[in-house]
Design goal:
Layout: H1 2-8, H2 11-28, H3 31-48, H4 55-79, H5 81-84, H6 102-123, H7 126-150, H8 154-157, H9 159-163, H10 165-174, H11 179-202, H12 204-209, H13 215-218, H14 221-244, H15 250-272, H16 277-308
Length: 309
């Protein structure tokens, strides 16, 4: 395909076409999601190793996990291409816009999945490699192919896949799953529904036209906002429990609680007013800041505790 392009155009034009092709493949992997995956995976490794993780292990774990995340996202784009073409937010993606073929995307996703398993099984352990494959399976088959098309539980149950990266990081170091890893999992699992519903409420009409049974479409705005509130409230005792069980110190407790209260206040404010794209994006953006803040705090707290000790 690239040789055909090269024969048809020359010089700067060929370079421009190639760059656009690379960008389209890159966007298939949903890089912003992958960044969150890598951050949470690394923190799982950091906690599991008590802050002394081997740099080589970090590199290969993040490489394999990143490829697994990219594979899931690409498979998601492949499966959802007929839905994406009907939504304003997604119709310009490479597959619905026709810039890449479905076959090319499928092959790319499959190669990434195989490569992820190969890297993780070779440089970490089989438990971690199979967890990565399970994550791909859950996101692609359970969430994308089944729940997203048939159930309002898609956002909540489907969140299992998105919450597994810190467990993958944990098992890469320990080769087992223990309760601290479950706490890290729980933070992301509880965070995902209100994070996603913020934008889903603003895009409810598009989901309705695409025949996707998201909670705002099936159950309405009021119930969705109430469920958002419940999940946001539940984040506070979850992060506090990380201190109570000795996973983190007093600095983490103070700052994470402040972040949780700020997130709760913003959510309540969001509930009291009509939903707009602007207000939804503001809450959505803060939710990303919140999650990155929590996991960054875990890392910083460990560093400070080591200095104090």
């Amino acid at each position: 395909m690239l040789s055909t392009i090269a024969r048809g155009v020359t010089g700067n034009t060929a370079i421009t076409v190639f760059r656009k092709l690379v960008v389209d493949y890159y966007e298939l992997t949903k890089p912003r999601i992958t960044i969150l995956v890598l951050v949470t995976t690394f923190v799982g490794m950091w906690v599991a190793s008590s802050g002394s993780v081997d740099i080589t292990l970090v590199f290969f774990t993040l490489l394999g996990t990143g490829m697994a995340s990219a594979s899931s996202a690409t498979f998601n784009n492949f499966i959802d291409r007929h839905i994406d073409v009907r939504m304003v937010r997604t119709r310009n993606r490479a597959l619905p816009a026709g810039r890449l073929s479905a076959r090319a995307a499928f092959i790319f996703a499959a190669i990434l999945a195989v490569a992820a398993f190969a890297v993780l099984s070779s440089f970490t352990n089989l438990l971690t490699a199979w967890l990565a494959i399970f994550t791909i399976f859950f996101y692609v088959v359970i969430y994308t192919m089944w729940l997203k098309r048939y159930s309002t539980l898609c956002t909540e149950v489907g969140g299992v896949a998105g919450a597994l990266p810190p467990i993958i990081g944990w098992t890469a170091v320990t080769n087992e799953i223990t309760w601290p890893a479950a706490l890290l999992f729980l933070v992301i699992f509880l965070w995902q529904p209100p994070h996603f519903w913020a934008l889903a409420l603003a895009r409810a009409d598009e989901y309705k036209k695409a025949n996707i049974p998201m909670l705002p479409v099936v159950k309405g705005v009021r119930l969705t906002k109430f469920r958002m509130l419940l999940y946001t409230i539940s984040l506070l005792p979850t992060t506090i429990s990380m201190y109570l069980f000795g996973l983190n110190g007093i600095i983490f407790l103070a700052v994470s609680t402040a972040l949780g209260i700020a997130y709760l206040v913003l959510t309540i404010n969001f509930m009291r007013k009509p939903v707009t794209i602007k207000s939804a994006r503001r809450l959505f953006g803060f939710s990303i800041f919140y999650l990155l803040g929590i996991f960054s705090l875990i890392f910083v707290d460990y560093q400070l505790n080591r200095l104090i000790v």
